[in-house]
Amino acid sequence: MSEAAARPLSTHYTDVRRATESLIEPLDPEDCALQSMDDASPAKWHLAHTSWYFETFVLEEALPGYRAYHPDYRVLFNSYYNSVGAQFTRGMRGLLTRPHLAEVLAYRAHVDRHMGELLARASQLDPKLCDVILLGLHHEQQHQELLLTDVKHLFSANPLHPAYHKNPTPASHTAPPLQWFAYEGGIREIGHTGAGFAFDNEGPRHAVLVGAFELASRAVTNAEYADFMAAGGYTEPAHWLSDGWSKVNAEGWQAPLYWERDGASTRVMTLSGLESLSPDEPACHLSFYEADAYARWAGARLPTEAEWECAASQQAVEGNFVENGRLHPAPAAAPKNGPDQLYGDVWEWTQSAYAPYPRYRPAKGAIGEYNGKFMSNQLTLRGGSCATPKDHIRPSYRNFFYPDARWQFSGLRLARDL
Amino acid sequence: MSEAAARPLSTHYTDVRRATESLIEPLDPEDCALQSMDDASPAKWHLAHTSWYFETFVLEEALPGYRAYHPDYRVLFNSYYNSVGAQFTRGMRGLLTRPHLAEVLAYRAHVDRHMGELLARASQLDPKLCDVILLGLHHEQQHQELLLTDVKHLFSANPLHPAYHKNPTPASHTAPPLQWFAYEGGIREIGHTGAGFAFDNEGPRHAVLVGAFELASRAVTNAEYADFMAAGGYTEPAHWLSDGWSKVNAEGWQAPLYWERDGASTRVMTLSGLESLSPDEPACHLSFYEADAYARWAGARLPTEAEWECAASQQAVEGNFVENGRLHPAPAAAPKNGPDQLYGDVWEWTQSAYAPYPRYRPAKGAIGEYNGKFMSNQLTLRGGSCATPKDHIRPSYRNFFYPDARWQFSGLRLARDL
Amino acid sequence: MSEAAARPLSTHYTDVRRATESLIEPLDPEDCALQSMDDASPAKWHLAHTSWYFETFVLEEALPGYRAYHPDYRVLFNSYYNSVGAQFTRGMRGLLTRPHLAEVLAYRAHVDRHMGELLARASQLDPKLCDVILLGLHHEQQHQELLLTDVKHLFSANPLHPAYHKNPTPASHTAPPLQWFAYEGGIREIGHTGAGFAFDNEGPRHAVLVGAFELASRAVTNAEYADFMAAGGYTEPAHWLSDGWSKVNAEGWQAPLYWERDGASTRVMTLSGLESLSPDEPACHLSFYEADAYARWAGARLPTEAEWECAASQQAVEGNFVENGRLHPAPAAAPKNGPDQLYGDVWEWTQSAYAPYPRYRPAKGAIGEYNGKFMSNQLTLRGGSCATPKDHIRPSYRNFFYPDARWQFSGLRLARDL
Amino acid sequence: MSEAAARPLSTHYTDVRRATESLIEPLDPEDCALQSMDDASPAKWHLAHTSWYFETFVLEEALPGYRAYHPDYRVLFNSYYNSVGAQFTRGMRGLLTRPHLAEVLAYRAHVDRHMGELLARASQLDPKLCDVILLGLHHEQQHQELLLTDVKHLFSANPLHPAYHKNPTPASHTAPPLQWFAYEGGIREIGHTGAGFAFDNEGPRHAVLVGAFELASRAVTNAEYADFMAAGGYTEPAHWLSDGWSKVNAEGWQAPLYWERDGASTRVMTLSGLESLSPDEPACHLSFYEADAYARWAGARLPTEAEWECAASQQAVEGNFVENGRLHPAPAAAPKNGPDQLYGDVWEWTQSAYAPYPRYRPAKGAIGEYNGKFMSNQLTLRGGSCATPKDHIRPSYRNFFYPDARWQFSGLRLARDL
User: Fold this and answer.
1) Is the pTM higher than 0.90?
2) Domain membership flag for residue A164
3) Is the Cβ pair C373, D211 closer than 8 Å?
4) Residue range B111-135: average pLDDT?
5) Which of B318, D64, D197, D418 is 20 to 30 A from B8, alpha carbon to alpha carbon?
6) C208 and D209: CB-CB below 8 Å?
7) What is residue B324's three-state secondary structure?
8) Do C226 and C118 lie in a common domain?
9) Does C360 share its domain with C409?
10) How far apart are CA B306 and CA D326, in angstroms?
11) How many CB pairs under 8 A join C and D?
12) End-to-end alpha-carbon separation of chain C, Å?
């Protein structure tokens, strides 16, 4: 049993909630109120929405006599749960000066106080309710990562290039040469084993037929990606999926998101502000289309999620996670007993569409809207990033984004048929 | 060896080319010139583009001294082959009054004359060239179907409801009750066997692991789909994928494409004009989102393409195809030794993303742009429709459209886990 | 009394209707069916809509027992008359393959036959009805000009550069040097005098206070406009109105519509196909923004419509009109007793907003929708063009377009304060 | 000489600058950072941009050794002055969390300190420089009004309906019945007389010919406007300009901006939050299209700006201005020697396009971009509003907005021909 699972639920609750709040310490109220695009949300909204979850799905259901903090919050901080009712328009979240940040923090405190009441008698709680609380904590960790990527995107729109924090540990070591690790084909089991928490989309665990393949020892680096660019990567349609090529042209993409040409050199927007591009760090903020084009150019391909999971389930969940405080991908280490960097640093695009596993059934009611209804038009990413909490990730974890999304810490690892 | 494969290439060529031309017999030059949306093309353009294929990939490559009919046609009638060069903007195809239909037919005749020269010595031709010619014939058959669906869409925009033809054989029989056919799970082979022609995306043939499942005996009917609508199908978000629900609301969908409420009854736009809706015919002109929502509401799901192919490869390729001249789906027959209607009537949406089969490699050069570059954001449909030529379809055939596409003859068949 | 006014109404009717039909003689049915943008209409639609006018406002009102040719035409060919009822969506006029051109011509013949019946007893007709018929004839002349400019725009979208006709008389003479004609200030009368036909927006005739000004002897030429371009006209914001500068950048304007760079030289799309740009011809297909920017750059300004009318009412209505058959602006002649080229060649942008004259009242009913409801956001142009019928124009004639419109034969003439 | 003009420039400067800052006293930093639409700006941006004006056009030009506060502010807070250089995208002003409000206030203090230095020797300053400073103060007053209307618009997007302030003095008296004041026609002079400050667009003073007309004694009230609505105002196209009718349908307009149906009664968003609609207050937040449609329905018309100015120049500049602290229109008083409410309460739409007066020439250089380049596509409004500083308005003052703008305190007064 993992350490996290061993924690009492009340401790777990407090840990996660405090972690969220620690993320806004470097931010002022103004930083927390703005929204740079429909896909992103203001930091303040993340703080409120994650509390709304506990208020709506736990306190209103299970704490006798609980009264909602504010009647309008039910709509204001509902993200996408149609079963709960109307939702404030996503793209207008950045128009809400009120509630002020201080008020949102008071809302959090109100929810925490009542959750404390409830959790004080955790041993008597309905296990189903505990599952909903646990889901809420993992949900909140997802928003922790989004809060960081959304702030980064917001700051990148500002010509002053604000820094979220000072980069405490500039990484200077060199990325090791690319190696390949071979994996035999056969029938394999993937999906969550049932030990510890998992989202519903990670199951049911099931058999898959995997061909023999090999996987790169680390993520593709900035230097390697720059070679692709220098070879005309963004100007040669033959490398691209048709929809990707349309996007390249419609958006004028010429480099990964956040790269800025500065004469001969390249600088890159980071959570520490504008920095020199490090050739050894993993290429990051790539869309699926870019990842796929790079792989094709490199004579390889993206792994399937089954391949990735087969390889990753043999490795310990260790890497450059949010707890490092670096908040930026770092160069890989030399591989030991298998590929490095499978966890942390950058989410790795797979070639697999985000689709239900065989016999997958979403839960009944609002909680059932958590994952299943997004199973079209997106692709799966694996392994977590430098903005993911360590105890949030596992081999079976399936993240998903649209193929043109670039504001996450998303990169790639090559695979090949054997 | 199939009858079609046994045909000499020159006969095959003539058959397909004449079939295309027969499709425009009911049309006037004006009917052939217009374009109702970016996804559709004018009939005239289909006539020209399929000739451009032979001119560009066959005659210019292999017929010594061949001179292009018109230098501008290389751009004008290039659909999406970046390797060949620039392409006239897709959404502007309906702005080309010139070349007139007569000129396009002259272009076809010019190409046919020279192809005839070449095919006269078919036995001496490079087999690779023969493959390119064969590909061109199957390509042309795809455009035959598109020509019909595009004209239908164009006519549907006209309040006069023009008819492409008189419906020669109104179908009046009743659809049989729904039955289920069970299939055991295990390792199965799917993909083209190598016997006869196939598109590159149908291979390589490979093993897949399929769970036990059952498949409906026929496609979902209009009557069944109307039940879904009456039960609030288009107003209850719980049935829908999130992207589908957005589409329903953005587009105001309340019924399949081409349905028109007429007081208490429903009429439907067909290639014979506006007709009464037949409850026994397969529901048609559905998007993937609608097919998926219906299946969820019905307590079932869409089949995977592997499941579909396992079932279909046990059935003869027979059904309501374009040769019937009906050009509209017909009620299913009572099933005999397995599901009916797998071929013809309506393309059946699967739940499978259109993705490369393991070890799939597109061909080098322009021909390689045929299929592979579209392998994102689309879903696979199987089985052909009432607008598909019979000798064009086979168990491994993979058609693909975006999940919101509705102008094809697209319906669904239910599947369930066992 | 003018010659035109002296014509019996039935002769007038026949003249105008035949003139419209003669315009499509060089066109095939396909040419007549397509629409290149929302602002333009298919030639076929112009033919039908002008007949719809007589059917709706004359025959249905005044011919006992008249039955509409086709019940759907009332909606299909209604342009913008809300009082008459619904209108088929403007931007979808190019989706109507039916009625075919032949059918539209039959519709015209049907209307003409019944109009003939009515006009046979013209002397007994209600004068108000005669006014409606006369309005219909001038309305039809406006559509004659639009038919030509719309076909030109449609052909310009075709890389084959089709020609509407062979240019019968290439103009080779040199434009005379620019001179200025001075006009004293004072109280002047403008607006229609009441002699002969006028649109309602030309009245009431009223006094205006005009300052002393001078007017250029001819329209600005291509050579002069090219100087503006060479001096950075399209790259220096200081020349432009703010909305114009936005448009320049949003649309990527770098030259007048229809100019095409061809190495060192410039070619221009005309109704005779792609031709060399003649430096001596008036600059044409300019938006108001371009006309205004040129004038500012040239140290001058656009005239007001009062100024223009004061000058023009002293000149005979003579010039390069549609009857010349040239269908393209021609170089000015040397001025005699005042500015040349005030009539014909190019519509001249004024700086005057299209607004009601003092005490203007639109007519009651549908006819009242003809002009008044468009009196916002547009600017007035004066003098007619090479596509205007000679007997359609007069000093008080007010044409109007949005400031970014470029597909009309629109140019400019400079004015200055004295 | 007016009181304002008599003030020493340094006092004037301090007065205006302090007035701006007092406007944000009720606001938190978050309130000041957000932007609800492209037309509006964050309060913080207004604070910075008005300082940028003095830094760019005064300090950098005239204070030896002055160093810009921050090099990036030149771009960041440039509104639309192409001569000064690049401008940060208008619609992205709401993405700037930095500089924080505190930093912007420090920027203001920095500019004020150096302006103080300069103004200390005001008597020695170049009169042209004094003109630029004076322009800057009137410019800042314009932004004071915009700051209020922009905050109102921002708050209106928030379902919590935040209040900018508590309404200190609810107005309860009844609007007097509508009377008409007649004015003779003839030649009149309009435009600024030259006494005191004026924007360049108010001159040159010039003669105009005005017909006899009458003007309503007060603005149209909410009760009167509600009658128009009850009579089908928003559903009958006959009342509307064509572009207005398109807008009504495209935007779904059914009432003035900020009206909210609440069962049988109507509430309206104000700077004091959501309030009951007062029938006696002037109708407000109307577009030109709505003002024009109301007038047509009422059998009247909008005044021209010449008519308005002729009437208003006979009245003292008194009314409900920003200094009242009401920040909302109030019912008219009974008229005494002419129309009431010409100044203050609501800007009154005229029917006059915003166009240059005869012989108008903008200044050279960046200051010349202040007014002239906006002289297309907009209409003139007169008289100031409840958010206008009293010493900012005068009879010749020309405000201008696009015909669909509704977020200003804009209403209307009827006029009629005599």
Assistant:
1) yes
2) no
3) no
4) 94
5) B318
6) yes
7) helix
8) no
9) yes
10) 71
11) 73
12) 36
Same domain, C223 and C306: yes
From D85, which residue of chain C is nearest by alpha-carbon distance?
A: C237
For A236, which residue in chain B has the nearest alpha carbon?
Answer: B82
Q: How is residue D165 written in tokens?
A: 């302030």
Which of D351, D376, D417 is facing C355, going by the closest CB pair? D351
- pLDDT, tens digit, for every residue of A201-235? 999 999 999 999 999 999 999 999 999 999 999 99
Touching subunits for chain A (3+ Cβ pairs under 8 A) = B, D
Answer yes or no: is pLDDT of B176 > 70. Answer: yes
Pairwise CB contact (< 8 Å): D242 & C374: yes
pLDDT of residue C167: 77
Indicate if A282 and A144 belong to the same structural domain.
no
In a domain, C162, yes or no: no
Instruction: Please state, in angstroms and rounded to a whole number, the distance separating the CA atoms of residues C341 and C320.
Output: 8
pLDDT value at position A7? 85
Residue where a domain stops, chosen among C121, C156, C191? C156
Is the model more confident about A238 or about C363? A238
By Cβ distance, the residue of C31, C75, C94 closest to B159 is C75
Residue of D nearest to C360 (CA): D417
Retrieve residue A100's tokens.
Answer: 């002020």
Cβ distance of B376 and A243 shorter than 8 Å: yes
The residue among A222, D278, C124, C100 whose CA lies nearest residue B160 is: C100
Q: Looking at D156, D171, D205, which one is the last position of a domain? A: D156
B272 to chain C, minimum CA–CA distance in Å?
A: 15
Sign of CA dihedral C182, C188, C191, C197: negative
Please report, in angstroms and rounded to a whole number, the separation of the first and last CA atoms in chain D: 36
Backbone angles phi and psi of B417, in degrees to 5 = -70, 150
Question: Is residue C99 reached through a cis peptide bond, with omega within 30 degrees of 0 on the bond before it?
Answer: yes
Please check whether residue A162 lies inside any domain of the structure.
no
ipTM over 0.90: yes
- B95, B101, B162 ranked by CB distance to C98: nearest: B162
In a domain, A408, yes or no: yes
Residue numbers of the domain that contains B149? 2-156
What residue spans of A252-328 are helical by DSSP H?
288-297, 305-312
Could you count the other beta carbons within 10 Å of the beta carbon of residue A343? 24
> Looking at CA atoms only, how far is residue D137 from chain A in angstroms?
28
* Pick from D83, D237, D373: CB nearest C242: D373
Number of domains in chain A: 2
**Cα separation values, D78 from C57, D63, D74, D87, Å:** 56, 20, 6, 5
Q: Report the pLDDT value the prediction gives residue D262, as an integer from 0 to 100.
A: 84
Residues B47 and B135 in one domain: yes
Q: Alpha carbon of D108 to those of B162, B163, D26, D73, D144: distances in Å?
A: 69, 72, 18, 12, 15
